[in-house]
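A quick aside before the break. I want you to see a complete sequence-to-structure record at least once, exactly as it would be stored in a machine-readable document. Don't worry about memorizing anything.
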Amino acid sequence: MAPTKPYRSVRDSVLLATSDCQKLDAGRARKMAMLGDSGGMSMTQLQTLSTATTRPKRKLAYWNDIPPPRLAPQLSEQRSIADFLGRLTRTTSGTVRIAEVYSDPQIFRHSCADVARLQTQIHFLHLQLEGESVNRQDERETRLRPGDITICDNSRPYEIVFEKPSRMLVFGFTDDLMRRYVQYPQSVAATCIPGDKGIGGLLSSFLTEVWRRWNEDKEFDLNAGVTDAMLGLVANAYRQVLGSSIDHYSLGAAHRVRVINYIEENLGDPKLTPTRIAAAFRITTRYLHHLFSEEDETVARYILRRRLEECARALTSPTQRKRTITSIAFDHGFSSATHFGRVFRSRYDLTPRDYRQLHGTST
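That is the input. The structure line, written in tokens, reads:
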């Protein structure tokens, strides 16, 4: 874990600045989202998108048409759309993404299909600014009140519920950056860091200050020192929340990370089994299953999910549109086309062929 710089020294080193927000129409918003997804745009200025001037019948479509660039696409379901107000202000600084979301009551959903289309794993830090939200991932659930913080990532489905008008600040960090501070962030997904006490209170104040300065000071730089302070506080806040279990957690998390890396490197091997994995690490299969026991997902289920996700990604890739479904399945560790079709449909509610046609890559 990288050392955490003192909050005061980092804060005192930040330069002051001002930055203008620019509003975008729907057409430009879509264009910018596409550019962001392909890496063709580097956002440094703040960009604000809002449903305030959108016709009532177009509000939901407009809101769903502007996912944050390089972040997870999210489906918004608004119950009373006529007067719905949604506003997104977003920016990037290097590899860090920042967004402030204000919304009337709605649900943000990141589905299995969304997971399959992603190219980059991002971990999101949610800070509740106003109202409340319910955050769900991996069958865990936490309710955030103003000042509270939690984490989720786009490699698995998640859901965020605004039950009343709410405002949330979101920071997005790449997987390799987050893991320098929290070895296995998935294990603390949807776990609340209280923002009214201890390190959590310091973290909440620091994130709010970073966002304020970005809005007001045009020379503000979210440099490595500021990022180090943020993620160092995140790691220490979770250490405080987890208490005495942290040492056991860290050891188990380290083992699990190594196992997962091994699985990822060998997904295409049809002989990849828990027994083989345990032998590769010279551990018992019982201990291997124990490493996955707290995540509500067995080793075998993890392997199956990741194979299906990679197959779904390949099926929607324009570069693989001429390949057969069977060859894609076999390249990702399946040895039976019938079995692949059955488990794929069970996960995505579509056959592989229908899934491919739906996403426009069939030949």
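Two observations worth writing down. The chain has two domains: 7-242, 266-358. The domain at 7-242 is CATH 2.60.120.10 (Jelly Rolls). We'll return to this after the break.
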